[in-house]
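Structure tokens please, single chain.
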Amino acid sequence: MVQNEYNKIMRVAKYIRLSREDGDDRESESVENQRDIIDNYIQGHNELVEVGEYVDDGYTGTNFNRPGFKKMLEDIKNEKIDCIITKDLSRFGRDHIDTGYYLERYLPANSIRYIAIRG
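Here you go.
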């Protein structure tokens, strides 16, 4: 199935977060908008196969005590996903130290690729 690292089929987790601080009227950050952006990205990349969606609606990005995020970490531990995709980096987290830990240490140590579609 996999010939090399560059054409490997990757099991993708969509991670979507909307904080109360983001406001209900901000369509650009809405759960549905984030889902559409990620779905469009996945559809344009044949090597990506969605295997899960994790949503934290109403949770701040300043900490990682979020049920969807915790479930995603559990699925990483159980080797169910290879890649996480978010609309942008702020949806993953807003605390620079903790976000850096996950992006620079935890995900690479578990062979997880991270994609922020819009920087």
